[in-house]
Amino acid sequence: MNEREISRLVRELGALLLERGETLALAESCTGGWVGQAVTGLPGSSGWFDAGFVTYSNAAKKRLLGVSADTLREFGAVSAETAVEMAAGALELGQTHWSLAVTGIAGPSGGTATRPVGTVLFAWAGRNGLREAESRHFDGDRRAVRMQSVAHALEGLLRRVNGAVRH
C-alpha cells in the first residue's frame, strides 16, 4: 500500500458518501491523524467529512470520545472494546452517518507478548446500528504499520458503506 492507493480509496469513499448525502467522523490514535490528513487532502472533502479526533492518550480517549475508564482498565487502549467505543464516540460527537477508529502499537517499542508491535485494532460505526471491530497485525517499521493501518481503515469503511442499505 502506498500514498497513491490511499488517495484512490479516499476518492472512492468521498464520491460514495457525497452521492449518498452522508458524512464521516474519525477517531485516531496510532495513526495520529493520518486518516484525516488523507481525507482532507482531497478537494471537496468538506462536503462529506465532519470531524477528526486524535486521541493518543487514554485520558484523551476518555475526555474527548467518552471511552469508559472501565473499558480501558479491563481491556486496554489496544482492544476491540476500546476501538468500538472510540468509533461510537466519534459518530455521536460528529453527528455523522459513519465513523471509524484506529488504535494500536506502531512501534518500534510498546509491544507485549500478547500485543506485539504492529497490532492494530479497527472499529467502524454507522447510524444504521453498525458496530464492528477487527484486529490486524502489520509488519514493517513504524511508518509502514501506520500506512497499512490508514489503508485498512479506509478499505473497511468503504466496504461497509458500499454494503449498507440507504435509509
Descriptive overview:
The chain is of the alpha/beta class and 167 residues long. The protein has a single domain (3-163), classed as CinA-like (Maf protein, Alpha-Beta Complex). Helix content is 46%, strand content 20%. It is built from 6 helices and 5 strands; from the N terminus they run H-E-H-E-H-H-H-E-E-E-H. The protein has helices at 3-20, 34-40, 58-65, 69-75, 80-94, 142-163; strands spanning 24-28, 49-54, 98-104, 119-126, 131-137. Strands 2-1-3-4-5 form a 5-stranded mixed beta sheet, with helices on both faces. 43% of the residues are buried. The mean pLDDT is 96.
Features:
167 residues; alpha/beta; Maf protein; 5-stranded mixed beta sheet; 6 helices; 5 strands; 20% strand
Order of strands in the sheet with most strands: 2-1-3-4-5
CATH class: Alpha Beta
Radius of gyration: 15 Å
CATH topology: Maf protein
The count of strands amounts to 5
Helix segment count? Answer: 6
Shape: globular
The unreliable regions are none
Classify the helix fraction into a percent range: 40-55%
Q: Which CATH architecture would you pick? A: Alpha-Beta Complex
Please state the structural category: alpha/beta
Average pLDDT, all residues: 96
